[in-house]
């Protein structure tokens, strides 16, 4: 005799469908899962609706979809409210909507948990208006204290982050100091990031030293803080310390430090970072590959940069731009223009930086016809409006070729106001090609624009000296002495055997100062013996 068996509500395959989704599924995957739930006839089942709502809060999702899921739940739980509040926070909607959901939850006599307040504060932190008026976030803080969640580390972290986003560092500090023992590495990282954002690098440095534990975010924040505040050497040393502690850096740190090495021309540091990448078998991403090419190109190793470029499997437009600009700066004009043609041939669309590299290549090689062609192609072919850098390359190209009048007309016809550097470039051309009257007018204009810039006086005096107008030379020198009380000393960096040496003009503080000046005297004598004279005015 056959027995009737009750059919289970869900088959094993239906019940486990959510388990097969990735930890962070895409919008398409979530919708496919929802479609399966509907086909199986379980579209009104609360457990599935809650799962779908939770998934929709993890990715950028249309709010109306999340709301439809929420309203389909007969008796929404705290979990359901939290998921919808999180959806609003991710969608950057007004925090008042999140707070309205919180109020609705309280009216149903549902007790919030620590996740509720974390999502609410996250919603408040992302709203730009809160930076001016943080009353809503302060109200949430009051509820946190009232309901006894001030000692929960997740909530404390959210509060610290919220107040820093509002620009209220004092309140963040007070929250941190209320219970310093109730903190984790995220708490310290939030305080560290806030100090860095406010430009208090030394405060951040002290806090970094006091941290009970550090993770890669802590090191990354500290390194970024040094770099953003111009303390490049400190940032590089911090990275060395990080490697000594055997902390594995992330991509952001590596790209940042490669950029610093490129800016300062510190090849040894750049090579050290490259060797670190190889030793860790770090994947050669597009960002890291591009940063390495840029570093080697700016540090004078254009051949190494080209080898890396040719070896990259995947390149984006910025990879090509860095290589084109690098070749141009190394006077490899033909290679730069050939690479630009390959760039176009592979289907990439140039941007403004691409044409800066191309026009710079033409300028350095004196390719006037090609420069005019690419300038016209940029404007008419790709609709890119010329910026100061593009005009600068064209003025330099024309000025070097002796087409001073044409360069002057280009400046006068610019769609943006020319900067002093543009006029200074033309002034140099006037001196080189003997356009005394034009040079005199430009020199006087530059002095009016920036009377504290000593270079303009030097250039104008140089023009007078070339024409042997010694009275005008003396007049300009006296004028410079009257108007420029003190000059900011220039400085330079030299990297030698893994150490960075900093020099100031007239510096005698270096350990090897006497040897350096002896070598300078020797160089000066050899230059004189070779029949070369330095140009003065």
TrEMBL record:
Pfam families: E_motif, PPR, PPR_1, PPR_2. It comes from the Eukaryota. One of its GO terms (molecular function) is peptidase activity. PPR repeats lie at residues 184-214, 215-249, 316-350. GO terms for biological process: cell division; proteolysis; RNA modification. Keywords: Cell cycle, Cell division, Hydrolase, Protease, Repeat. This is Cell division protease FtsH. The lineage of its organism: Eukaryota, Viridiplantae, Streptophyta, Embryophyta, Tracheophyta.
